[in-house]
Write a structure and sequence with these properties.
The protein is mainly α and 200 residues long. 50% of the residues lie in helices and 4% in strands.
Amino acid sequence: MAGFRSLARQVRDPRCDLALRRYSLRKCLERFAPYGHRATWDHLCSRAGFGPEDRSPDPVRLVAALEELEEARSVWLAYEAEFAERRRREKHGGLRRPGSVDDWHRLTWGGFGVAWCDDPRVHPDRPLAEVLRDLISALEREPGSLCPVCDGDSLVWKYDLDHEPSSGPVCADCGILVPRPVLTGDAIAYARRGRLLMSA
């Protein structure tokens, strides 16, 4: 099975058939897809300027989509390296029990679904790397009451998400499943109440 970097080389290789280059970009999303596979694909297509179903996109646009994905992956891999080093220091210092950020991080190791978007057509429109930097910053500070990606305050508790956890606070503005560790208890309770009010 090819890794992310070898797939990225195929996307860039002008000697490869265009269909293979597009396929290789899609396969990259099996290794790293911050919004989930379908939402990340929709995001990359819209930002690079080709349709999700376009079988013959401009190779320059394919590479632009790949470059955005690679930049975001670099941001996430740097965070994971810092995270692993911090946990190593904590364990060395006797702190064996992970916190809530650690529990969340275990579910997103490798970067899949870091900012899960259950609806593949609703996702942040800013560059992926910016979104991940905002999310990482939120994970490293005290919890707040707003979406860490768009500062939206329309958080709604949703169930039966196609992700783990299968329920949680979703930002109605940008579509991400907001990681619980970045929200205060009051913000989570408010999101839960909003769900109850909507279903009444």
